[in-house]
Amino acid sequence: MDTFKSPLARLDPPLVAGEREALVGWLDYYRAELLVTLEGLTDEQAARRVVPSPNTLHGLVRHLTKVEFVWFATVISGLDEPAPFGFPDRKDGDFLLDDGATLAEDVARYVAACRRSNEIFAEVELDEVRTHRRIGEVDVRWIMIHMIREYAHHNGHADILRELIDGTTQS
Hints:
Layout: H1 19-36, H2 43-47, H3 57-76, H4 93-96, H5 103-122, E1 129-132, E2 136-139, H6 140-166
Antiparallel strand pairs: 1-2
Helix pairs in contact: 1-6, 3-5, 3-6
């Protein structure tokens, strides 16, 4: 039975840095932390529902893949590509896990989305303004702070789900 090993190293964000470096450092830290939470789990464990909602650890990887795509590829870059997992037409498509994808496949897609997001971010200025379809105008700085908040929020969920699956807690 194969268990998951994170392909991303969780490096502490810089203690002293410029704004761009600090934002990327914190976002990359939280991206890696999500995957560290899955270390040692099997596909079945990562897909296990332990709360009434469809939220699972595997689903969180897919959800944050979608979030990366929406904010960086769609909002910042303005690309007209179909979003992963049927978003926005398919409610909770990222959490349904009904397409046969393994955790390893979805983690590879997630890592690629994070790398693409970093490439997109490297090409824009923090003060540039973009329009989100629901909330209106935001600057790139706001998007980065929002993404850090999004990860902190979902990594908290991941910690609880992991503890409910096998008792493992983050140290």
